[in-house]
Design goal:
310 residues, mainly alpha, 14 helices
Length: 310
Amino acid sequence: MNTVKNYLSLIKFSHTIFAMPFAMIGFFLGVAGAAVSIVPGWHTPVFLDEFSEAQYFSFTGQLAIKLLLVIGCMIFARSAAMAFNRYLDRSFDAKNPRTAIREIPAGILQANNVLLFTIINCVLFIVCTFFINRLCFYLSPFALLVVLGYSYTKRFTPLCHLVLGLGLSLAPIGAYLAVAGQFSLLPILFSLTVIFWVSGFDIIYALQDEEFDKSQNLYSIPASLGKAKALRVSELLHVISSACVIAAGFYGDFGWLYWIGIAVFAGMLFYQHSIIKPTDLRRVNLAFMTANGIASVVFAVFVIADLFVN
């Protein structure tokens, strides 16, 4: 039991709260499109009249299986990415007082076991995509290349934050592809939202390691520009993220629930910038975890609810 707890701590399982809600948005966008193609007005009482009982249970049963597979993909891909990051950065983590307590430098988990854990999760991710559809299966190596490749980027570019955002942005489009089997602009707009949102709050998190990154010749926006300018870049990225989610609202012709969700999402972005100053990083974890967790979960709830009532 302690081993399971240690691995959950290693991969920061609670941080799944960032990308998982957007994966659910992508999934239910695909569900809405699939259902409309079968029965117009699928979310109204007419839906039950038009579907035979056999069609209804077949449709919902297939969706339930795909939902479980999508959740599996999210968990396995993210676990692989986090474990690989901890494995690759173990020497840096041991030197940084903030990260020296992590599982590998603290001797709680062995590096080779963490690497094996990474490989197992990669295999399980690919297996899940195989049972979803052919397109997802063919794209799975590229997805792993992005989420695992991020761990190398801090060694050569301050744009590493955007690569992390790119990795998490695969969640909504990937979940949509699981259901629809083809690309569409709307889930891509949500993916763009995630890229700029995640990269913006990752810059805030990286403020804590500005001096350490400089001492180790590691790259980040704070290390390259300093705290004050890095916060301005983060603000700009969050403005772009808000613009993307607003564009998605107009393009998708969403209703009033969606716009309430946007208000909460944008409000949480504004809030996290209001509590972080270049000279005061005491509330970084509040901005990073709490504000962004609320932003993603509440926004997803309102978007999905809007799909059913609009």
